[in-house]
Amino acid sequence: MKDKINQLCDRNFGSESCRCLVMETQDGSDLCFPHLVNSSCRKPTLDWSKTVLLNIVLFCISLITVVLNMLIIIAITHFRKLHTSTNILLLSLAVSDFLVGLLLMPGEILRNTTCWFFGDFTCSLYSYLVSQIVSGSIGSIILISFDRYVAICHPLHYSTRITLARVKRSVCLCWLGAAFYSIFYMRDELIQPDRSNSCFGECTITISYITGIIDLILNFIFPVTVIVVLYMRVFVVAVSQARAMRSHVTAVTLNHSVTLTTKKSELKAARTLGVLIIVYLICFCPYYGYSLIEVNVTSTTYASFLIFLFYFNSCLNPVIYALFYPWFRKAIKLIVTLQILQPGSCEANILIIVTV
């Protein structure tokens, strides 16, 4: 048998590497499942040192994403002063970002750097969670944009239109809609978990052309259009309000100064969430932008980079909160020092910030 392999390699390739490759496959040392010689995938051939370094960096990003978003979740849920409509929407986004760091980032690292040892069903479940979490995140961003649009463009109607109960219902409907959409998006994978895998030890996602087009419209074109239109309107109104405040800053009464402070707070919140959305689009657009060229992006060589760029946004969001929201910095201090364990800490007025 060995003589036949050597003759075949010499005749067709004339290379010693061919013999090594065939012999390695024969003894199963380079297979994910050596006992499944005819149906097992080959182990990824990656440079060991580069792979270890890359995995350490990516796992650190994943850990930072989990920790920072967990701080946001604890802060908003613990302190009652933070139970506002806008913060509930931020909480929804933080939950999706937390799940990205906890589940999606490690899963993507495992899929691309080693064999998939968890079976076809787990692969399909992971693919479903990717669609669910990403869709929920997109829905949260749209709700945040609409919240700021009403707050800036229709401030007199904000308290009646954007109530806490309505926001909570909207968030629930957002995640419920994402769940049903993900069932449609991953229906083939859920019905036949191994349909996209060519061998054991592989976890790939393959979608049909029609499904890819629908996903492109619902998860990219429609959300981006809504977000851009709403924030263009917010930007125009915010600029006009800022100019009006500057021109009347020396002529306001005490009562008007309270209104002025409120407007400044709303404008600052709009700017902060504007930065949040701009960063989101920067990380979000390359993946779906490339899908305009290749619908099934996951089958391309750029898939891992584009996916991780999209996931990296979940790490950047808490950093934006820390830079622009003083209450978040104060909340972190109270959480890290375990002052939230004290009785009555949930009633603390976290919004009162002492300037340093």
Descriptive overview:
The chain has helices spanning 2-12, 16-27, 48-78, 85-113, 119-153, 155-161, 164-185, 187-191, 209-247, 254-291, 303-324, 326-336. The protein contains 12 helices and no strands. The chain has a single domain, classed as Up-down Bundle (Rhopdopsin 7-helix transmembrane proteins). With 356 residues, it is mainly α. Mean pLDDT is 80; it is low at 1-26 and 253-258. It comes from Kryptolebias marmoratus. One of its GO terms (molecular function) is trace-amine receptor activity.
Task: Compose a concise summary of this entry.
By secondary structure, this protein is mainly α. The protein contains 12 helices and no strands.
Keywords:
single chain; mainly alpha; Rhopdopsin 7-helix transmembrane proteins; disordered N terminus
Secondary-structure blueprint:
Elements (H helix, E strand, L loop, with lengths): L1 H11 L3 H12 L20 H31 L6 H29 L5 H35 L1 H7 L2 H22 L1 H5 L17 H39 L6 H38 L11 H22 L1 H11 L20
